[in-house]
Amino acid sequence: MILWGLNAVVFKAIATSATFQPSRQETLGSDALLVDQQQLKALKKELIWAGLPVSEQF
Question: pLDDT per residue over 28-53, tens digit each?
Fold first, then answer.
């Protein structure tokens, strides 16, 4: 799954954080991340924990 269009500060935090590293497979640009499909549930939980809004479609 690809996450894109993130706020620049949020993107940098996710892209560089050790907390999110297991879910993140690769940085695809300045605002896109490739996420391990098997880690989506865990990533969603971490994003909610961090207080970030998460779409129900995620």
Answer: 777 788 888 888 888 888 888 888 87
Give the full edge-to-edge strand order of the sheet including 2-4: 2-4, 32-35, 24-27
Q: Residue written as tokens 């970030």?
A: 52
Using only C-alpha atoms, the chain has a radius of gyration, in whole angstroms, of 10
Give SS3 for 5.
coil
Q: What are phi and psi of 10, to 5 degrees?
A: -65, -45
CA atoms within 13 A on the CB side of 26: 4
Q: What is the pTM of this model?
A: 0.64
